[in-house]
Amino acid sequence: MTTEATIEQATIDWLSDLGYTHQLGTDLAQNHKEVVLKDQLLVFIEQQYPHIPKEIQQFAVAEFTNNVGADLEHRNRTFHLKCTKGIEFAYEDANGHEKAVHIYPIDFSNANKNSFLAVNQFSITGKNKRRPDIIIYINGLPLVLFELKNWYDENTNIKEAYNQIQHYKKDISLLFEYNAVTIISDGNEAQHGMFSSGMEWFSAWKSINGIDTVQDDDFQMHTLLFGVFPKERLLNYIKNFIFHEDHNGTLIKKGAKYHQFFGVNFAVEAAKKSVRPFGDGRIGVIWHTQGSGKSISMAMYTGILRSLPELKNPTIVVQVDRSDLDLQLYENFVLAKDLVGDVQHAETTEDLRTLLSAGAGGVIFTTIEKFRLKQTTDEALGELEHPVLSERENIIVMADEAHRTQYGLLDGFASNLRKALPQASFIGFTGTPVDSKDADTQEVFGSVIHTYDIKQAVDDNATVNIFYEPRLAKLHLWNENIDNDVDAVTEGNEDSDNLKWAAIEDAAGSKDRVNKIAKDILTHFINRTNTLKGKAMVVSMSRRNCVKIYDALTALEDCPEVAVVMTGNISKDPIAWNEHIRTKDATEGLKKRFRKEDDPLQIVIVRDMWLTGFDAPCVHTMYVDKIMKGHNLMQAITRTNRVFKDKRNGVIVDYIGIGDNLKTATNKYTGSGGHGQPTIDMEQALELFFNQVEVCKAMLPDTIEYSEWKRLRDADKVLLVKQGLNAIIKYDEDAENFMKAEKTLSSLLSIVKSQPQIQEYAIDVLFIQHVSKAVRNAKSVKSSRSEQQEKIKDLISQSIDSEDIVDVFAMAGIEKPDISILDETFLLGAKQEKDSHALKIELIKNILKDEIKLRLHKNIKKYTSLREEIEKVIDRYHNNALDSYATIAELIERAKDLQNDDKRTEELGLSEEELAFYDILAAKQDIIKEEGLVKDIVHAVVKAVKRNLQLDWTKKENAKAGIRLAVKKELRGKVSITKLNDILAEIMEQAEGQFSDWSA
């Protein structure tokens, strides 16, 4: 049988194939409270910097292993910056001359000069003793952690590996000060991520070389190891593809996904060949689909270019075509300061010219329109052509969303840019294809360097699918001959296009149509958010229509908070629009509110703003009432494709008829070498929905007949739901899988619920949802207080005769049941029942587990042990070693243990928080020399602990030392001196668990 150890050994074998040295942790002469192999780090520094004094070498080791920071994330950043950027040390040579040396703990340019160890079976002692599966040490620094689960154990999965990392962060936090990359695997799946990231941000590494087709059918751990862990590649990743964003003191650590790593590296190689004087200045194009981290890729690319010696400190000009995109991308670069350094922002044309005329180096942000000619004024004549600002060859222009603004090479801003920087080189980053009739991409930028298309992004969970739902609200003026009709009316008028557009806008904004759309939007949005919490954008074709839809929406009952986001012209706009016109700062404040999942602002109405360069991952629906085409349409709809918590899809609801334009855009995507459609049409959504119904039905017993559901009395419905519940609840894995399957079904339902084809499946869905809700509530009983025991007893013993079986406690009027409802009379009376034991056992188990969770910090040792006993009882029940009656009886015995604790506190004259300390001392009564009651010593010890508590004391060694000293004083003379430290360690462990959240 393959075990966790076998997966571990396979990983070690592959690392050995890559040149890593395998080392058993048990063979390392290392203090288990130290996580760095300092002797190895010293050997490396001695070999790399043999000319510097010994004391400086040793001082360097101390500096690299002493990380300052308010919390673990800040200490991790401190180390990462020291590791990748090095530290400068000053010293005097033998002749007394002052010298300086810049020391790196790793040689990033020559992998073979570093030691690479793959260490397993290495125990580390922190708050608790833990033994991670594999640690990769580079020069004695623990930079990579592997946590592995058994591939062949059906009861384990990759989430358990992730969960174990969360415990390690608490128990052996020192290890994570140095962690660069964390790997989690259950054998079948293997994912990489940052130690501080949520599970949704861990991902598979799907390519070994970035060129061939992704390795979908390969063993994921093999692909990950050979894709990331060749020594030069791992060093490159650590140095150039990891950074920390600082969000007002909260750090978010980010690392590249495989498409970013390979795309950027290919672009770096292209730059080395293409930048003048090595090439013609056309570096190429990176096409990574919308929402897949393009701005992060640009920042990583910038950081590498700035460090390349052959480019001699280049200037990077980041150019966009609109000011709102400029600001958004600029803010992203500022957040990536660790990679790119300081960033400058050209506020005006004059500012841009000054920055570009300066010396080499730096990153400059600008919009394309700032490359304008100076106009004639009273003081001076205007310019006929743009002046040359710099003839340096190490200027690289990065064009964001490389579209039409880059193709006006004969005249216009793009032409001016090239005249201003005649020796510059160009690279385009885009989320949409750029080859159209009037835009020869290869002529401007060079060939496509790397593509990451829609299909791959969705397959990798880098983005979510977007579903398209046409709900056309007809325009009265919208007829096939509209162009001819308008041409006849406007014959001879050169402004006929504008007049035609005004007529369409007027028709789209008719009161009756707007009211119908508003009602439909609100109904659709409420239905959507019933099954998936999130936000929505409404896109209207004009500012006037934005205001109209706002007025119609907000007049409806149950409408959530809505805002219009648009520009204003106070000299022309109606006074009624004033509430929608905001300052720049106010608009930024609104943007921050809309991005927050829990902020009451639920819907925004826009014309153009926020449709590009704006990320709000919680947005899952867009209502479109504006004709859009090409890349503008693609950029708009992908506002809904960002990954966010439980969000599995975005939805585009079309009121105006953009379907044909979507098809054209799809052809453009696939015709440019990409794969996957921008949206999935409703037929595909329906097929997915029908399939998911079958998946859920297959998990239910065939014997349950619910086809007459709608005719049944509530009491009969309850009995059917209970049959489904009892069949699924017995095994945790079955219950989890059923709840997940139902969740997927309900998310698809929110997309297809307006389609008539789903009606024949309505009863299936209703029954599946009822059973899932019953399972979910049976598994999430909350414990806190006791009320009305008799009602509970009657409800369970009478097989529960209400449709609200899903929450039996709520039915009894008890919101939070307490452990005291589990008395003998109550539950042992269930002996004669035939089919409800599985539910009772689940309820009792969860009441006990939640009660223990509430009490755990009060008595860590005791309640941890009790929790393990309960799990053993349940395991025996699942393995048929116990029948259901015996299981209930054993669980009640465990409940008595909890109830007895409540009695003991009264009998001993102790407070609730003193009981755990009493148990510690009472267990060692044979070594207590003091005559008298143990409880008197307990009173004194707990007072000593509480007197010395301070904010965040568990993170401060001096604070913990103060408490230890105070407790020692109380125990000295009362406890055998040889055993004092043993008791002290237990008291401190309990104090940390019980009082860790202390606040004054």
Fold and architecture overview:
Mean pLDDT is 77; it is low at 476-496 and 781-835. Helix 19 packs antiparallel against helix 26. This protein starts with a helix and ends in a 5-residue tail after the last helix. A 7-stranded parallel beta sheet has the order 15-16-14-17-18-13-19, with helices on both faces. It is globular. It is an alpha/beta fold. The longest helix is centred in the last third of the chain and has 25 residues, at 884-908. Strand 2 and strand 3 (98-103) form a beta hairpin.
What attributes does this structure have?
single chain, 45% helix, 1000 residues, six-stranded mixed β-sheet, alpha/beta
The residue ranges in which pLDDT falls below 50 over 5 or more consecutive positions are 476-496, 781-835
Biggest sheet: strands side by side, in what order? 15-16-14-17-18-13-19
Largest sheet data: 7 strands, parallel
Number of helices: 37
Average pLDDT rating: 77
Beta-strand segment tally: 25
Strand percentage: 5-15%
Distance from N terminus to C terminus (CA atoms, Å) equals 54 Å
Alpha carbon gyration radius: 33 Å
Structural class: alpha/beta
- Which outline best applies? globular
The helix content, as a percent range, equals 40-55%
